[in-house]
Amino acid sequence: MNDEFRILKDLAKVPAGSNCALLIRHGDRNGGLAKVVTEQEGLNELGARRSKQFGKMLSGFSDLVAYSSPVGRCVDTCLNISKGFGKEVEVESTQFLGMSSPFMVDPPAAYVKMHELGLLGFVDAYVNDSLDRKIVLPCSEGAKMLFSYAIDRIKNMCGGVGVFVTHDMILTPPLAYFFDYDYKTNGLLTFLDGIVLFEDEDGYIASYAGRSMRVLENGEVLPK
């Protein structure tokens, strides 16, 4: 196993022949991990190389489909992963995975709040449900929408993998809410890391860093 990619430890749990969704942050870009950058900021050379390398690690799956935030670095991450996988796919770009995702009720107001609180402060407020509901839905609802979206797109595959590339501010909150991710110590989710969501004989399981949660087909996470 290549330790450069933490997520591979969760991928190792996926039963042979099961469909799988990878909800991941885009590849490496310039600037700090928790830095707000423009939509035009693309992958750097390291990000392109690592994305291709990551795609090679998915060779055990029968097929690959790719969905991405409209932001260029996310689309490019999908394209490079598919090249590494050995099958260049048409990436479906969707605002659902973008920073104006549906659970951001008022994206402009959310951006103002991010600048006011800082990215980690915003995550903290979101996870602890102290943000105005006119700005965002509850964290649990956002995660349910995200999981449901992914499940709907992999459920009819046959041993395939769906790659869903999005942003740190979309993935860090559900990681903190459901998987006890320590964002205060570790910061926002790092590049090419995220949640592995896969089928097993009883339905679906979402996994991160050794912690697993049962997920219904509608995306609802069941209590531990």
List strands and helices in order, with pairings.
Blueprint: H1 8-11, E1 20-25, H2 45-56, E2 64-68, H3 72-85, E3 92-93, H4 107-117, H5 119-127, H6 139-154, E4 161-166, H7 168-179, H8 183-186, E5 194-200, E6 203-208, E7 211-215
Parallel strand pairs: 1-4, 2-3, 2-4
Antiparallel strand pairs: 1-5, 5-6, 6-7
Helix pairs in contact: 2-3, 4-5, 5-7, 6-7
Can you describe this structure?
A hairpin with a 2-residue loop joins strand 6 and strand 7 (211-215). The mean pLDDT is 92. The two termini are 29 Å apart. The chain has one domain: 3-Layer(aba) Sandwich (Rossmann fold), CATH 3.40.50.1240. It has a seven-stranded mixed sheet, sandwiched between helices. The protein has helices at residues 8-11, 45-56, 72-85, 107-117, 119-127, 139-154, 168-179, 183-186, and strands at residues 20-25, 64-68, 92-93, 161-166, 194-200, 203-208, 211-215. The protein has 224 residues and is α/β, with parallel strands linked by helices.
Task: Write a brief caption for the model.
This protein is α/β, with parallel strands linked by helices and 224 residues long. The chain has helices spanning 8-11, 45-56, 72-85, 107-117, 119-127, 139-154, 168-179, 183-186, and strands at 20-25, 64-68, 92-93, 161-166, 194-200, 203-208, 211-215. Strands 3-2-4-1-5-6-7 form a seven-stranded mixed β-sheet, with helices on both faces.
